[in-house]
Amino acid sequence: MKKLSEAEIQDELQSLPGWEYADNALHTGFEFENFKEAFTIMTRIAFEAEKLDHHPDWSNVYNQLHISLYTHTEDGVTEKDIALAKIINDLVS
Amino acid sequence: MKKLSEAEIQDELQSLPGWEYADNALHTGFEFENFKEAFTIMTRIAFEAEKLDHHPDWSNVYNQLHISLYTHTEDGVTEKDIALAKIINDLVS
User: Fold this and answer.
1) What are the structural domains of chain B?
2) pLDDT in tens for each of the 93 residues of chain A?
3) What is the CB-side half-sphere exposure of residue A14 using CA atoms within 13 A?
4) pLDDT digits (tens, 9 = 90+) for A1-18
5) Which of A12, A53, A73, B7 sits most deeply, having the most CB atoms within 10 A of its CB?
6) Closest-CA residue of chain A to B55
């Protein structure tokens, strides 16, 4: 699992609406109807993250969810982050 | 639901091990064995928060969970924050 170059990341971001690359990680944010809707999506993401053995850095305040993806062992963004970002977009959309 | 004074908050904190008062809110952090354990506790907290209609500001990175409690409408700490902090400590212990 190798760290992607910035060019590779920017290329992947073309198919990841809502995500941006900054400070060596991928970031996005979502706003849901209420807490229950936000936590429902968090739960679905949690199961997928556990299956991938790759977990988000995330924070939630009521209906807002912010997610950062980063591969700690590579100190950057890898294919695992791209894969999890795609899963998250599929779950939310 | 009235904002508590700092003296009232410090008094409540006597029976809330692991919590501190700073920047107008209550804060704590927990470390679990892994992501699954952290998210399991988050789920139990989520149901209690929903029942109380009072929700945490929280962030999770793998096995780490940080929680801040604050009553937005009162711009401070109220009995609802104390109640949720007690529930969280009971769930985690």
Assistant:
1) 6-71+78-92 (3.30.1360.20)
2) 799 999 999 999 999 999 999 999 999 999 999 999 999 999 999 999 999 999 999 999 999 999 999 999 999 999 999 999 999 999 998
3) 6
4) 799 999 999 999 999 999
5) A12
6) A62
Q: What is the DSSP string of A54-84?
A: ---EEEEETTEEEEEE-BGGGTB--HHHHHH
- Inter-chain contact B50–A35, Cβ cutoff 8 Å? yes
Q: What is the mean pLDDT of chain A?
A: 97
- Cβ of B39 within 8 Å of Cβ of A46? The answer is yes
Let me know: does B74 contact B3? Beta carbons within 8 Å: yes
Closest partner residue to A35 among B36, B39, B55, by Cβ? B55
pLDDT of residue B1: 79
